[in-house]
Amino acid sequence: MIDLSEVTVRYNGTAVLDRVSMHARDGRLTYLLGRNGAGKSTLLRTACGIVRPGAGSVRIDGEAPRRIARPAAAIGVHLGADAAGSAAGPHPSHTGRRHLRWLAVAGGLDDTRVTTVLRRVGLADAADRRVAEYSLGMRQRLGIAAALLPDPPNLIFDEPVNGLDIDGIRWLRTLLRGLADDGRAVVIASHLFDEVTRTGDDVVVVERGRVVADLPLADFVAGHDDLETAYVSLIRPTTSGGEGR
Ligand SMILES: Nc1ncnc2c1ncn2[C@@H]1O[C@H](COP(=O)(O)OP(=O)(O)OP(=O)(O)O)[C@@H](O)[C@H]1O
């Protein structure tokens, strides 16, 4: 369970998140929607404790992130295959297995967890290749494996579909659903409404640093033809393609 209450984050004096509250419940896939620059990634970084808010509170299963002794065991985070600020990204000259082993040792985990997560993300056959040789989709899978390594009860993914082929997208769909069905709180930032419709339980819409909707997907779509129509009627995206602030 991840709760944000009245969270404000400022960069250079500008509020990127402005009194944001949201709740990601156990056993649910919660999708974060919002145009480019709306504040989704900042919200995810704040929710897992990478960014400390200037005001408001963050709770992961009732605890403030800085009070959690082993954060990776409480919340798994994958902010994108090449994201700056990702937790301990892989060294290109290391193999996928070596990267995960290093994380396992750092986290006091058994080596069998490495084998388990490599299988779970479909990298068992590529585990002994150097990460430099991995495709974007494979790096996504490795990042997801790292997040899953300590088997955390909460998970955060920032646009995890990027770079995955159709098999990968179908695999990820099943994986995410399974992670939530096992009782975890799973939060995903996404622009892919088809994936949200197929797998989502709850949606949180971020607009210009504010949360403008936080409710079950079915309630959000009710009275509209589909998710896209419901979304457009709420935030009316610009046609310029520019950032949302
Ligand atoms: N470290 C930073 N320093 C200064 N400004 C930042 C920083 N990180 C993000 N921002 C700004 O905060 C705003 C929100 O960015 P954020 O990456 O959270 O948006 P987003 O909704 O995830 O966008 P996208 O869909 O493009 O990934 C943007 O205006 C961005 O330029």
Explain the overall architecture:
Belongs to the ABC transporter superfamily. It comes from Gordonia hydrophobica. Residues 2-233 form the ABC transporter domain. InterPro entries: AAA+_ATPase, ABC_transporter-like_ATP-bd, ABC_transporter-like_CS, P-loop_NTPase. This is ATP-binding cassette domain-containing protein. With 245 residues, the chain is an alpha/beta fold. The chain has a domain at 2-88 and 154-235: Rossmann fold (3-Layer(aba) Sandwich). Helix content is 34%, strand content 24%. It contains nine helices and nine strands. The strands form two sheets. Strands 5-6-7-3-8-9 form a six-stranded mixed beta sheet, sandwiched between helices. Strands 2-1-4 form a three-stranded antiparallel beta sheet. Helix 6 links the parallel strand 6 and strand 7. Helix 3 crosses helix 4. The chain is globular and about 50 Å long. The protein starts with a strand and ends in a 10-residue tail after the last helix. The site of adenosine-5'-triphosphate has 12 residues, from helix 1. Residues 11, 16, 34, 36-42, 243, 245 line the site of adenosine-5'-triphosphate.
